[in-house]
Amino acid sequence: MRFDADQAATLETILRWRRDVRHFRNDPVDEGVLARLAEAMALAPSVGNARPWRVIRVEDPALRAAIRADFERCDAEAAAAYGGEQAAAYRALKLAGLDAAPVQLAVFTHIDPAEGHGLGRRTMPDTLRQSTAMAIHTLWLAARAANLGLGMVSILDPAAMERLFAVPEDWMFSAYLCLGHAEWEDDTPLLHRAGWQENAPTRWAVR
Questions:
Q1: What is the rounded CA–CA span in Å between residue 203 and residue 15?
Q2: pLDDT tens digits, 57-106
């Protein structure tokens, strides 16, 4: 299949306007939309077609509260690691959507799935986690195309998440995602808005 110029331009627009959303409205997301996002995630590439990502939709209030508590602990430790003006700038950032995002997803990687029969990962087992990362990125783009925001909460203790969810020993925590309607229509990235850091160009070295 060949894409025409309009289709290619649409893809570029989605890539440019994908954002790590931190501020959400708390109104619910249509279940039909969520089903389509799950289907889109299933289209992601994976090493040996292993499809190692395991997704848990987190609805239980007590479990959400425990995740919030772990975030607060890790966030306090992170803030303490900064000094001076950077510490103040860090504290001014809102680094989680845990309080408002109506849909929250815990994503794990099965590190030895039967699927794929080991193909492609014998010398590079990290390709399983890379596959999960690609599935998350696919979800991110699909969410943006559905006019939804998605944010990754990276300030969590992976071992604590594995304990909280009581997952099998061969599941490794990969990401905690907040999904919902963005509070703002302005798509300026939060870190740019806060003056934290601008994008650096990607350069392809030649050897």
A1: 18
A2: 999 999 999 999 999 999 888 888 887 777 666 666 666 789 999 999 99
pTM over 0.70: yes
Confidence of residue 22 (pLDDT cuts 50, 70, 90): confident
Condensed to tens digits (0 to 9), the pLDDT of residues 155-171 reads 999 999 999 999 999 99
Phi, psi of 96 (to 5 degrees): -155, 150
118: left (phi over 0), alpha (psi -120 to 50) or beta: left
